[in-house]
Amino acid sequence: MATGSGHPTRHPAGATIYSVAERAGVSIASVSRVLQGSQAVSEKTRKRVLEAADELHYVPLAAARSLAVRHHEAHGLVLPELSGPYYSELLMGFEYRAAELGQSVVLMLAEGKADLPRAVRKLATRVDGLAMLGSSAIPDETVSALGGSKPVVLIAGDEKATVDTVSSENTSSAREITAHVLGHGRTRLLFVGDPTVSPDIRDRYAGFVAAHASAGIVAAEAVTVSLREADGTALADRLLRGDLEADALVCANDELALAVMVRLRGSGLRVPEDVAVVGWDDVMTARYVEPGLTTVRQPVRELGARASDLLHERITGSAAPRGAQVIPTHLVIRSSCGCPPPPVAVRALP
């Protein structure tokens, strides 16, 4: 095989971006621009590159393009775990949007990592930007340091100067759902969830406290539990044993609320007559249980998609100045709070 200078050369069995560049007599950067559809090349160069690629049966590889343009074409996503509906919805929204943008996703789970900050820093070397869930697991200084050198989007985290943040509204909706429960005459409400583990749970508890203050009542301390199904079951057992007293539970997510409801009803307590239960997220199951779960709907999949979009904009230099993007949430009234169930539609016989 001959090059443009007439000197013979040998290529490996699989053609690479380098062999295409050599065959066409151009730089690998020019090959990369042509293959990515850039207009910043002459028609003559474009034709030479495409002809060389065709002759060599070259199939562009993401890794090769990365070497040429110093991009990985990958978004990093750090989540605490994948159990429960919240994380799977978030991941689906993030990955679907990234795929639309032509990007792959490298996922890291924080659970089980002995040195999470180090693992996150290592991940940052393999991707063009990072999105991560705001939580106490990743120190603020690690997030800020990463944001100073690479695009970072914090999901459901506090606003920071060096990173972008995307979150759902929490405080106002938590205040609204708590006030709704208080409006049913309940006076011994407990907030179920740990406000110290993440900003969104902290803000939901703040809304819980604010609703009590508006009603002239001192709010109880939060019952600090994790947000998993097993923790909801264990909390219900504490109520059944008399270790806790409440006539209503404001749960930090639906997974807790649904587990509590099932356990209480299975043990003879009535929901909402004996104990009202409300949640957060509006997962699919919330509308099918009996009674239907009153909750706050947050568009989790949209949250993931928005984070992916913003990260890509920051990577490509097209993002607006940094700031916090907040997605609205709203109250969904069903029957677990004490409201009557909706009337059953009766179909007339022909």
Automatic annotation (TrEMBL):
Pfam families: LacI, Peripla_BP_3
GO MF, any single term: DNA binding
Cross-referenced SUPFAM superfamilies: lambda repressor-like DNA-binding domains (SSF47413), Periplasmic binding protein-like I (SSF53822)
Keywords: DNA-binding, Repressor, Transcription, Transcription regulation
PROSITE patterns in the cross-refs: HTH_LACI_2
Gene3D superfamilies on file: 3.40.50.2300, lambda repressor-like DNA-binding domains (1.10.260.40)
Record-linked InterPro entries: HTH_LacI, LacI/GalR-like_sensor, Lambda_DNA-bd_dom_sf, Peripla_BP_I
Domain annotation HTH lacI-type: ranges: 15-69
Protein name (database record): LacI family DNA-binding transcriptional regulator
Source organism per UniProt: Pedococcus aerophilus
Classification lineage: Bacteria, Bacillati, Actinomycetota, Actinomycetes, Micrococcales
